[in-house]
């Protein structure tokens, strides 16, 4: 049975090389085998996370016409409010039963101080993970962080409202998809619904574990590493019990490389097989994926 590992990040900052390497090995194994992990001792305070969840609930409680004043307009800025069913993460299915607020670094400043602090804290944690990835792949420690230094990341507040009416055939809270960037940080409440697909095609639950952050690898990291690290399909299903009457909230931080970074197969990842993908610019890949998920709906 595949289990998503829980990894304690504390030892990564150890001055003892062997202790640090043990954590790097755990992270490498998780990225290779399942593409998901839970991180303990992430360095982001529980109080700050709670503040962002509180802000998120306040925003989604606003009348629809108020939220629509901040409507998401295009994939180039990729910021603003995304209404229910507006996005189809699985383009073959009906629109997702969720609403979202996409925030970049500039937009965070106009919202709330806690959002700015949280964005910065997520960036710091992402950089630590990217350093661990680099060491796991026999690269200089700053290999990935220097290619992410423009902070082209997206913070996404998500709300999955209670279901008042039956869903359409094939409709879920978030369709089956892989993430587009390098890595994703996910903070979720205890309502549940997140499922992860194993390499054998089985779907397993990824419930909230207190005081952890869910980390998963995205498409661009999979391309960079020639599938040494896998970008795993995941989805959010509709509960089949009373939780269907409750809101689910989560916060995702999508870590993206600088737009002009060429994602080309790493030399250390060509031992098992020759490059699977041609080189692509990070910004071009992100645009193509956003265009597919928003379509013309």
TrEMBL record:
<dbReference type="GO" id="GO:0046872">
    <property type="term" value="F:metal ion binding"/>
</dbReference>
<dbReference type="InterPro" id="IPR050231">
    <property type="entry name" value="Iron_ascorbate_oxido_reductase"/>
</dbReference>
<protein>
    <submittedName>
        <fullName>Isopenicillin N synthase family oxygenase</fullName>
    </submittedName>
</protein>
<dbReference type="InterPro" id="IPR027443">
    <property type="entry name" value="IPNS-like_sf"/>
</dbReference>
<keyword id="KW-0479">Metal-binding</keyword>
<feature type="domain" description="Fe2OG dioxygenase">
    <location>
        <begin position="151"/>
        <end position="257"/>
    </location>
</feature>
<dbReference type="GO" id="GO:0016491">
    <property type="term" value="F:oxidoreductase activity"/>
</dbReference>
<dbReference type="Pfam" id="PF03171">
    <property type="entry name" value="2OG-FeII_Oxy"/>
</dbReference>
<dbReference type="InterPro" id="IPR044861">
    <property type="entry name" value="IPNS-like_FE2OG_OXY"/>
</dbReference>
<keyword id="KW-0560">Oxidoreductase</keyword>
<comment type="similarity">
    <text>Belongs to the iron/ascorbate-dependent oxidoreductase family.</text>
</comment>
<dbReference type="Pfam" id="PF14226">
    <property type="entry name" value="DIOX_N"/>
</dbReference>
<comment type="pathway">
    <text>Antibiotic biosynthesis.</text>
</comment>
<dbReference type="InterPro" id="IPR026992">
    <property type="entry name" value="DIOX_N"/>
</dbReference>
<dbReference type="InterPro" id="IPR005123">
    <property type="entry name" value="Oxoglu/Fe-dep_dioxygenase_dom"/>
</dbReference>
<keyword id="KW-0408">Iron</keyword>
């Amino acid at each position: 049975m595949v289990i998503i590992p829980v990894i304690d990040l504390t030892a990564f900052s150890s001055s003892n090389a062997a202790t640090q390497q043990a954590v790097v090995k755990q992270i490498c194994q998780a990225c290779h085998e399942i593409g998901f992990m839970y991180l303990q001792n992430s360095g982001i305070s529980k109080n700050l996370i709670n503040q962002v969840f509180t802000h998120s609930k306040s925003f989604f409680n606003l009348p629809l016409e108020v939220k629509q004043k901040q409507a998401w307009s295009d994939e180039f800025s990729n910021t603003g409010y995304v209404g229910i069913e507006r996005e189809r993460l699985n383009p073959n299915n009906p629109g997702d039963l969720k609403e979202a607020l996409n925030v970049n670094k500039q937009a965070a400043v106009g919202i709330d101080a806690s959002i700015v602090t949280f964005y910065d804290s997520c960036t710091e944690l992402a950089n630590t993970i990217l350093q661990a990835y680099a060491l796991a792949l026999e690269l200089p420690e700053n290999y990935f962080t220097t290619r992410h230094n423009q902070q082209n990341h997206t913070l996404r507040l998500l709300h999955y409202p209670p279901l008042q009416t039956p869903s359409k055939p094939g409709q879920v809270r978030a369709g089956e998809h892989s993430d587009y960037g390098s890595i994703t940080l996910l903070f979720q409440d205890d309502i549940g619904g997140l499922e992860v697909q194993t390499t054998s095609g089985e779907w397993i639950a990824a419930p909230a574990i207190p005081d952890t952050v869910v980390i998963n690898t995205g498409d661009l990291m999979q391309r960079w590493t020639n599938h040494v690290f896998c970008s795993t399909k995941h989805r959010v299903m509709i509960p089949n019990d009373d939780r269907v009457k409750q809101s689910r909230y989560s916060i995702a931080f999508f870590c993206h490389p600088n737009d002009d970074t060429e994602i080309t197969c790493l030399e250390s990842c060509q031992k098992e097989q020759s490059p699977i993908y041609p080189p692509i610019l990070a910004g071009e890949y992100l645009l193509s994926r956003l265009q597919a998920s928003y379509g013309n709906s």
